[in-house]
Amino acid sequence: MKVDHISISAYIDDFSMITIVVNKPFPIIPSLSLVDDKKVSQPLTIDKQEYYDEVVIYKCRTRIPIDLKNRYWVTFNESRIPLMIGSIVRTAKFDSLYYDDTSLGAIYTPESTTFKVWSPVAFAMIVKYKPRQSDSFIEQKMSRTENGVWQVTLEGDHHLTEYLFVVNVNHEWIETTDPYAKSVTANGIHSVVIHLPETDPEGWNRSEKKINLRSKTDSIIYELHVRDLTIHSDSGVMNKGKYLGLTERGTKTTNGFHTGLDYLKRLGITHVQLLPIADFGSVDETKPDSGYNWGYDPVHFFSPEGSYASDPHDPICRIKELKTLIHTLQQNGLSVILDVVYNHVYKREESPFEKLVPGYYFRYDEGGKPVNGTGVGNDTASERKMMRKFILDALTYWMSEYKVDGFRFDLMGIHDVETMNLAAEKLKSLNPGVFLLGEGWDLNTNLEPEKKATLSSAKKLPSYSFFNDAFRDHVKGSIFPDGQSGFINGNQDARIKGHMKQVMRGYAGQHDTFLKAEQSINYSECHDNHTLFDLLSIRHPFEDEFMRRKRQQLALAFTLFAQGVPFIHAGQECFRTKYGEENSYNLPDSINAFDWKRCESFYKEVDYFKQLIRIRKTQPLFHESSAVLSEWKLPEGGLGFNLHLPISDIKENDSYWSNALLLFNQTTKQIFIPFEEKRWMIAIEDEKTSHRVLNEEQYRLEPLSFSLLYSV
């Protein structure tokens, strides 16, 4: 509001503190009062005057505490301005007074549906709803509880009723969808009431409790994007780019190479990690082929994305088809990890969070501006009680309703340690073998360093595995082309070589990053940044492609045989390229599609990948925590490790190995390794499987190659 060329706004910052912000000082301090809806007035006392970022701030104290059930105005000089919600929502007292642990959203029964939404700062609330087969919306007032939950019960069967909340906050009425909506109409225009059993596909057992007892180190994660894996013209898939595309059996290229689901089954991987499938905002669901996105721009956290559904207009379809995908993968022996994005929202101002409780769900700096550690304009505040509840509610919903096997947390370092440990405790009570992993990058958000769920806090988060950037950087080098190169690039810096034992040990130990190797997600490529093939093309522009591929296969060997959890980006096994694009999050299918013709052309390399996986999975030596790793001396340019399993831990099986030698050559020349003992068998050499006995006194390790020897 402007009065005499002074721009004025007023905010509630505490239960007895009002902040008045003006663009220049009052020439004469006016007499200030606070007036509520009942025209009860009380004087305001100015405690202090501050200057901040080209504005003047007057901190004023009230005599009677603010009651958030009322509306207020600040009056002065015969003028008045509406009092807006300020940083009061970020106070400990607010969290204490208004925390509510009841169920929220549209709570359905065939006889009635109860709508519940949390907004302690709302003056009034209406649910605006349109029953199935109705052409118009009906409005119904909602009542407020002491904890700030607004609710109303509508009689009758409201399955597929569309609805919105109309909320009066900050002296204006505004419409919003339900943050707890289980489904939405196309592009998330309206929330939809869902009778969830109606969304179950054939063969789905609602009463079944999903239990996974596979250890983390027995796991091999394969990261893929729903659209990417089937959209290629020669995928042989009917439902290209859809949830159902990944459920089709018997799909092949025109030359008969297995694709899609059948390809995944044959790889030997244990977990499929899906890039975000919760409703996101950057693709028009009614025209899904007109845009592309990875999905890290969440809007509705409980509803599946509609662009992957065969009918985005049908609120049941997106749920049923995603369940069909999850069920099909699990029936084919593949566990499912969802990539979840709770660290930010697509557009803060348009989010139901911000409309319902302005300023609560996000972090702000001292000047009241949103912080931006995520790089997308907002950071959610997981440490606040109702945001923490929201995250836990969403996770338990996806686990119980969709029966997923794990979660990968995008930018997990934005979240706080307490929230993540509470989430782990809750999820493990539902499924003791749930796989939890995340990105522990330390980002510049407004949270004390010791509270961040970062890599440096890994030992405080024993249930979580972390993307290990140290593993990545020492194996392949920096993600930035002009950064330091890694071991596979031929970097013989003593510091790089000195770290390779940590690489093979999964950075586990009393004085290292992790409590156990299972906390280390070992990877050399993921959806972010250049594919390894493209990065090697940049780093070695004058080298023959054959040699660059050999470097990539060295990285694959480290990934699969280091202690910890192997993580593979879809297509890495066949040298996936994105044609030099470093960040393809919104680029077209021509860049992002999984190229089945390319994969087919590298069928020998794909078979080699399968053989490496088979060895890792069938030999306890590579995933038992008791395995002892020691260095094996090799000539310059070579790197060797002996992996030994104590006799007491060797299972009674003649085919199990007690020792393995892992030999790496980072040079473009042969390395000759003397062997005094001839008790070794050769399993892998120069990207080929072998079953021969080592007879020579000097073993020849080929240029840029990996060999695996063993004894029983």
Automatic annotation (TrEMBL):
Main enzyme class: hydrolase
Pfam families associated with the record: Alpha-amylase, CBM_48, PulA_N1
Glycosyl hydrolase family 13 catalytic domain ranges (all copies): 251-616
Molecular function in Gene Ontology: pullulanase activity
Alphabetical list of InterPro entries matching this protein: GH, GH13_cat_dom, Glyco_hydro_13_N, Ig-like_fold, Ig_E-set, PulA_N1, PulA_typeI
Family: Belongs to the glycosyl hydrolase 13 family.
Name this protein carries in UniProt: Type I pullulanase
